[in-house]
Amino acid sequence: MRVLIPFFTVIVLVLLAFAGVKMANLHFLFGVLIPYAAVVVFILGFIYRVVQWGRSPVPFRIPTTCGQMESLPWIKQSKLENPSTTMGVIGRMLLEVLFFRSLFRNIKTEFREGPKLSYGSDKWLWMAGLAFHWSFLIILIRHLRFFSLNVPFVIKIMESLDSFLQIGVPLLYITDAVILGAVTFLVIRRFWIPQVRYISLAADYFPLFLILGVAVSGILMRYFVKVHIVGVKELAMGLVSFSPAIPEGVGVIFYIHLFLICVLFAYFPFSKLMHMGGVFLSPTRNLANNSRAVRHINPWNYPVHVHTYEEYENDFREKMKKAGLPVEKE
Amino acid sequence: MAKGPIKEELSKLDYTPPATEWMDTPVEFKPGTFCWGAKGKNLQTVEFPNARDWSPAEENWKLPKDWEGTVLEAMADRLSKYRSFKLFMDICVRCGACADKCHFYIGSGDPKNMPVLRAELMRSVYRKYFTTPGKILGRLAGARELTVDVLKEWWYYFFQCTECRRCSVFCPYGIDQAEITMMGREFLNLLGLNTDWISGPVANCYMKGNHLGLEPHAIMNSIEGMIDDIETITGIRINPSFNRKGAEILFVTPSGDLFADPGTFTCMGYMMLFHELGIDYTWSTYASEGGNFGLFTSNEMAKRLNSKIYAEAKRLGVKYIIGGECGHMWRVLQQYMDTWNGPTDFMEVPVSPLTGTRFENAKSTKMIHITEFTADLIKNNKLKLDPSRNDDLVVTYHDSCNTARGMGLMDEPRYIINNVCNKFHEMPEDTIREKTFCCGSGTGLNASENMELRMRGGLPRANAVKYVHEKHGVNMLANICAIDRATLSASMDYWVPGVKVTGVHEMVANALIMTGEKERETNLRGDPLPGKEGK
């Protein structure tokens, strides 16, 4: 159920776009209204979620320290793994966000008779994760060519780098192959590793299938089922200039691709995909470890009922005097 | 170990998850894997709700009326107060990187001990009551209702997590199961569902100043006994003071150091060091506990217990505070104390009276770790040391979870160890420093009725010790934590017989050449020093 429902949901989404465009001729709905709606939901939803998180304060300074702290001057501090300054925190966050530093630490625990435990480096998840996220980002940026009249220089460079293997016509983008491989790996490992399968929810499979659908439809469109590319650009330009128009003769595969992307955008703020925003807010990573040097303020710190020294002395005064301890009241 | 869990049974592990989905797999309260329930009188002492005697093994947990409402209300409250909690409920992608990082999972194979799944126990309820997809889609969205069975499952697994934060090191978003366990325990406490081993020390600490419930004269007696031993061994009579106003330094250590071996040897170490240097310090019988079992109860209880340290520093008029060797005590001192009970403008930035070093990294809390203090002394040649007195020891060092991952105090103790003993070997790199393994009995799980759980959780640490024991002949496991000194002794006896446990300052004191001492024949434990065995 946790696999089949998300899988068939994606299939239904594809059929929906197909039927809507091919049979019901709802080009305007799928080409204009839904994309606008999806972008609005994405932006507002994303902001809403981040604001919601932001409204909860950070009462305590709780970085998870992953290296030597700032201490005596002759002890070498691990400035990126245990930062005590804002610059250090920025460095730590950059490593985390751009290169998945924590995932890079991943090790595999092996248990043998004895009992004997051993630990081996396990970088597969890190590699697949990095490959997936980076290729997704590059593909996203590449797509900006559709939204600008003159394709910016940066994007042209990116495109030529991405296709430097010079395979096929049109030229194969490396990122297309990488994202397909990486997402497939991420799906397979969810099935394959018993522990991961055991914890996986429908909400883990659905985005994977959806992104796979987006990638496959996009690849089909570029390399196999050709669409009227000038028409696609016209549509995109119309959308960004707020004068939407539906050009003639853009193939249905384009509408399927677009619809799946719209679903992804609209789904994003309500899903685990929000880790994209959340990672920046994680208090175990984005705080400097300086809470002994600078007092961290808890906005809701409140007075509590304590057992005072006076009460303590009242309880034990005679015993204290007998033991020769100084007391406040004789 | 004659009685207790059977080693063969604990050595066979199966990591295959059960055929039933986890929401359909009921929790089994297996004797030896959980602690006794809190006693009513202890809960009453600290004014906790639903104070009554109860037993987790029994069907009826004597829950208060509308307990579901209490929990959900508290959940809403904490979600609005802790960004960590809210965020960690929302952003997990269940990648599984944390799964085999937990010592309880490694040692038990129980999938609900994978940090991700332990967190899902809570997240599933969060989704049901606090998210739209969870409300609409229910189980398909990974949501479930809060029932008595769910509550029992929470209790079982949130008291099967030592808040060690190892999972958080490996999580790509830094999700920290300790934060979720802390919340889980807060909610359980609102229903009177603590353990005896935690609520007893909490009540003691509240009324008497320390977990063990030592009254003022008992503390003095205990230290008196140590002073006698020190005199026998060194010929020097030291004379510590208690509750003394006007001392320069207040010294606070976990009360475990006052009570049982091998902690007492560490305590003797502190006192010998301070005596030799002529430090102007005082003990306090009111703030006679550095540790804080309140932390394993609720944020508020932790603050209530911790308040005594600053209150006493103020009353006695000390300039700053030195803290002894303890793990979770230092998590509190580093990340909570100043926020709770500061600011401390009545004290001064700690300055070592011997080296003049200003401890800028503690300029706000005014509390330094004894290993920072001692490392600085050694670096500045203020101590006369004879490391060969520790030549019978082949030492390895266990980083405490909290000093490693909640602080980053890693090289100070190593520097000291390397100056006071000649034979030191590190355990494998994936088991030390930020990747260190918990002793298996932290966060108040060091009771005696849950020995199977403790030995299972202690396996990864013990196994790494076993590796250096076999490879280098390591026979001494050094650490800077009172709970370690007690619990690792048990897990070493069980998994790696022949390895003893020591605090760092016990080794310091053995190596320390004191002014006017007689020729020492034995170490602090009364064992003959190397080369003096024949006598």
Structural features:
heterodimer, A: mainly alpha, Fumarate Reductase Cytochrome B subunit, 2 domains, two-stranded antiparallel ribbon, 2 strands, 58% helix, B: mainly alpha, 4-stranded parallel sheet, 3-stranded parallel sheet, 22 helices, 7 strands
What's the CATH architecture of the largest domain in chain A?
Up-down Bundle
Whole-number average pLDDT of chain A? 95
- Output the structural class of chain B: mainly alpha
Got a strand count of chain A?
A: 2
Q: What structural class do helix, strand and pairing data of chain A support?
A: mainly alpha
Number of helices of chain A: 13
What characteristic shape of chain B results from the CA principal axes?
Answer: globular
Helix content of chain A: 55-70%
Oligomer category: heterodimer
Radius of gyration of chain A: 28 Å
State the CATH topology of the largest domain in chain A. Answer: Fumarate Reductase Cytochrome B subunit
Q: What is the mean pLDDT of chain B? A: 96
Describe this structure in words.
The complex is a heterodimer of chains A (330) and B (535). With 330 residues, chain A is mainly α. Chain A has two domains: 4-299, Up-down Bundle (Fumarate Reductase Cytochrome B subunit); 306-330, no CATH class. Chain A has helices at 4-23, 27-55, 86-99, 101-104, 124-142, 153-162, 174-192, 194-199, 202-224, 229-240, 252-267, 275-281, 309-322; strands at residues 107-112, 116-121. Chain A has a two-stranded antiparallel ribbon with strand order 1-2. The longest helix of chain A has 29 residues, at 27-55. Chain A starts with a helix and ends in an 8-residue tail after the last helix. With 535 residues, chain B is mostly helical. Chain B has 22 helices and seven strands. In chain B, the strands form two sheets. Chain B has a four-stranded parallel beta sheet. Chain B has a three-stranded parallel beta sheet with strand order 5-6-7, with helices on both faces. The model of chain B has no long low-confidence stretch (mean pLDDT 96). Chain B folds into two domains: 9-30 and 49-193, no CATH class; 202-511, no CATH class. Chain B starts with 6 loop residues before the first helix and ends in a 24-residue tail after the last helix. In chain B, helix 3 (67-81) runs antiparallel to helix 10, helix 8 (148-158) packs across helix 10 (177-190) and helix 17 crosses helix 19 (411-420). The interface between A and B is large, with 101 and 114 residues.
